[in-house]
Amino acid sequence: PLVSMTEMLNKAKDGGYAVGQFNLNNLEFTQAILQAAQEEKSPVILGVSEGAGRYMGGFKTVVKMVEGLLEDYNITVPVAIHLDHGSSYDKCKEAIDAGFTSVMIDASHHPFEENIETTSQVVEYAHSKGVSVEAELGTVGGQEDDVIADGVIYADPKECQELVERTGIDTLAPALGSVHGPYKGEPNLGFKEMEEIGAATGVPLVLHGGTGIPTKDIQKAISYGTAKINVNTENQIASAKKVREVLAADSEMYDPRKYMGPAREAIKTTVIGKMREFGSSGKA
Ligand code: G3H
Ligand code: ZN
Fold it and tell me: Is 84 a catalytic residue?
């Protein structure tokens, strides 16, 4: 069933595992992620960036596509549809009105007081509809769609505590050195801050830029209160690699089902691997 993230993340935090947010790019991504979740008996968060939402037709199309698959695939595990990096109150409201069960308001690039104000407005509307809210502090490096960073800024633990207390968000993404897209070298995550922020705020934490983070760092992050890990690029790479391989092997192939089908399998395999790594398998 479609649910908000609140219960799944609180359970994950208490249980010492993390729920994956896997981003949707098209129908095949959605199918693969839902099939993986059902097979693994894992809760799952479907992340939709504004850009991916536009690509798929709009928020309403996304919600109806997901709802259709939940029925056709007889999905029984908890599923959240989450706006990833919502850029404004209006975008968050649009997603909520279309049927999203969770939103992220990313006002992290605005001054602190403005971040608090915008986030509070989103929380007020979202909570009145039973929708969960994620906010961000600091800067995640790299680029994802419209979200482009010049550098990495680590979140400040004091500000994190204040943001959580003054806004009533359900979960917080403190940027602590993670990057959207592939890493150049090993990531250098601020675990000291993560531990401090987890303890000071009490809310489950979110780790963006999940692609390419070594397993030991994933485990450390979970032990410091990270209960949600976002992955997009890794699935995109797996899918593109498979399409290249299949088309290169047969220059006569033109039926999209013949190359997107294998790509869908590659995404599913990748997602299953992440669910096992994050410890969410068998938790639904
Ligand atoms: O918001 C989405 C994620 O942070 C995805 O990051 O593409 O590096 O896995 P990634
Ligand atoms: Zn992100």
Answer: yes
**CB of 230 closer than 8 Å to CB of 23:** yes
Collapsing DSSP to helix, strand or coil, 46 comes out as strand
Query: Looking up tokens 């691997």, which residue turns up?
Result: 273
Q: What is the DSSP letter of 139?
A: B
Atom of ligand 1 nearest to the CA of 210: 9
Testing ligand 1's pocket by substitution, the residue of 217, 230, 239, 270 carrying the most ligand atoms inside 8 A of its CB is 230
> Do 136 and 108 meet the contact criterion of CB atoms below 8 Å apart?
yes
pLDDT tens for each residue of 116-147: 999 999 999 999 999 999 999 999 998 877 77
- In 69-165, the DSSP E strands lie at 79-86, 102-105, 132-137, 141-144, 147-148
Give Rg (Cα) of the chain.
Answer: 18
Residue nearest to atom 2 of ligand 1 (CA): 230
ipTM: 0.99
